[in-house]
């Protein structure tokens, strides 16, 4: 397959300097597909779905809050051919090979992982009255797994895009596909997630999402170039994944919603900081201090998102960095999702934040914060371009002792295209 015919799209996705590397990556994908399915490759269709970075709005989406997020250059890519009634997934990255009968998509007890998500997505399409069909596929992904950049949501939106484009003429609105991805996570994976991850993966670019209308969240683009502002957005892998922390993540929205229930509401949206403080004694007694603190974080974080958008649109990057730092402090002190409760000996996120804060304070430039769900995964740092190499070396040496060339630091770029078929 001649991938150079996709040069314009590939340049948007990965940058001109990475074309040769990405052409080779897709070539390997297609060759593995052809080998696995004994295909001549003439009807193969190519898809890509990015990971995402959360820029502002930590743990607000599930209570219908506001977030600032963006698609990143790391992505899941797929080679696909339409078949009849069976979906077959051959995943090179995770060494998975399984099939699902599209007529048997009720939840299977104890089924976990990507097969459960695919089954849930197909059921979600059926529930919404959309068409489904079978396909053979081969996937590979460089989205960091279990690290808070949404490798799972990237995969979910890939499956949604394939079903949408192959069997529904690509006419299903983004908000509906996002809701199906959330349904699969909630109902087939027991993960009480909101819609931030799926929306940010699917939409492309930097976006502000207001989830007040949960059926059709308001999404708008925010045009800003971090590199042009003289900064590189970094994600630091803390050394511990979050695959086994669903209970800790689920507790955050559950506690916020418990506080909301006191006011006769399902979520905190529409309430205020003052509503909490006016009823503080009874809320503390009924739900506990942590639930109250997490609720207060929600209100303040929504305000910060609006201020971050304003700062970026005005080109006031110094104010933006101060808001990033404030968001990180709130996650640590109020939301309390830095350390896993009861496991004091393991604090990988705290270590990485402490190292980053020291570096930033030493140079008097930059900002850092918790990223994503918390407890484990990655942290985010905005580092001046001229200090980027020094920061990478500093963090890798501190975390790994400079051994084996292991890299914990990823330089992120925002890609303008979300989940798409490459054509």
* Percent of residues in helices: 40-55%
Radius of gyration: 21 Å
Beta-strand fraction estimate: 15-25%
Let me know the largest β-sheet.
Answer: 8 strands, mixed
Q: Which spans of ≥5 residues are poorly predicted at pLDDT below 50?
A: none
Separation of the first and last Cα atoms = 13 Å
What is the number of helical segments per DSSP (H or I, 4+ residues)? 13
Order of secondary-structure elements: HHEEEEHEHHHEEEHHHHHHEEHEE
What's the overall average pLDDT, rounded? Answer: 94
Protein structure class: alpha+beta
Form type: globular
| Annotation, overall tally of beta strands | 12
Strands, helices and their partners?
Elements: H1 7-14, H2 19-37, E1 45-56, E2 66-82, E3 86-91, E4 96-101, H3 114-127, E5 135-141, H4 151-167, H5 174-188, H6 196-203, E6 206-210, E7 218-221, E8 231-237, H7 246-261, H8 273-278, H9 280-287, H10 289-314, H11 317-335, H12 348-363, E9 367-370, E10 378-384, H13 388-400, E11 409-412, E12 420-421
Parallel strand pairs: 3-5
Antiparallel strand pairs: 1-2, 1-12, 2-5, 2-6, 3-4, 6-7, 8-10, 8-11, 9-10
Can you describe what's shown?
With 423 residues, this protein is of the alpha+beta class. Helix content is 44%, strand content 19%. It has helices at residues 7-14, 19-37, 114-127, 151-167, 174-188, 196-203, 246-261, 273-278, 280-287, 289-314, 317-335, 348-363, 388-400, and strands at residues 45-56, 66-82, 86-91, 96-101, 135-141, 206-210, 218-221, 231-237, 367-370, 378-384, 409-412, 420-421. The strands form two sheets. Strands 1, 2, 3, 4, 5, 6, 7 and 12 form an eight-stranded mixed sheet that branches. Helix 5 runs antiparallel to helix 6 (196-203) and helix 12 runs antiparallel to helix 13. The two termini are 13 Å apart.
């Amino acid at each position: 397959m001649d991938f150079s015919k996709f040069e314009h799209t590939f340049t948007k996705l990965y940058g001109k300097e990475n074309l040769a590397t990405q052409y080779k990556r897709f070539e390997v994908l297609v060759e593995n597909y052809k080998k696995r399915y004994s295909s001549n490759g003439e009807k193969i269709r190519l898809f890509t779905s990015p990971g995402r970075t959360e820029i502002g709005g930590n743990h607000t989406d599930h209570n219908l809050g506001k977030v600032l997020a963006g698609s990143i250059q790391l992505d899941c890519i797929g080679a696909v051919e339409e078949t009849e009634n069976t979906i077959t997934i051959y995943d090179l990255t995770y060494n998975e090979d399984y099939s699902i009968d599209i007529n048997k998509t009720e939840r299977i007890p104890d089924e976990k992982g990507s097969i459960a998500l695919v089954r849930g997505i197909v059921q979600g399409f059926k529930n919404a009255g959309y068409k489904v069909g079978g396909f053979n596929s081969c996937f590979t992904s460089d989205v960091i797994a279990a690290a808070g950049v949404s490798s799972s949501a990237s995969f979910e939106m890939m499956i949604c895009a394939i079903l949408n484009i192959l069997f529904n003429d690509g006419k299903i609105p983004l908000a509906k596909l996002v809701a199906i991805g959330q349904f699969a996570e909630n109902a087939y994976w027991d993960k009480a997630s909101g819609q931030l991850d799926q929306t940010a993966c699917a939409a492309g670019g930097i976006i502000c999402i207001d989830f007040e209308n949960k059926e059709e969240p308001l999404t708008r683009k925010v045009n800003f170039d971090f590199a042009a502002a003289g900064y590189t957005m970094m994600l630091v892998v803390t050394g511990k994944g979050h695959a086994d922390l669903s209970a800790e993540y689920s507790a955050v929205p559950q506690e916020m919603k418990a506080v909301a229930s006191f006011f006769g509401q399902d979520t905190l949206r529409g309430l205020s900081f003052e509503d909490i403080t006016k009823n503080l004694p009874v809320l503390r007694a009924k739900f506990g201090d942590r639930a109250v603190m997490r609720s207060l974080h929600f209100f303040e974080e929504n305000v910060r998102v609006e201020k971050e958008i304003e700062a970026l649109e005005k080109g006031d990057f110094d104010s933006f960095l101060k808001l990033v730092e404030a968001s990180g402090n709130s996650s640590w002190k109020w939301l309390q999702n830095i350390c896993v409760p009861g496991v004091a000996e393991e604090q990988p996120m705290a270590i990485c934040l402490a190292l980053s804060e020291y570096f930033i304070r030493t140079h008097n430039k930059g900002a850092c914060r918790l990223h994503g769900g918390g407890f484990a995964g990655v942290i985010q740092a905005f580092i001046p371009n001229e200090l980027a190499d020094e920061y990478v070396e500093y963090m890798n040496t501190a975390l790994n002792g400079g051994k084996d060339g292991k890299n914990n630091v990823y330089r992120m770029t925002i890609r303008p295209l979300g989940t798409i078929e490459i054509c």
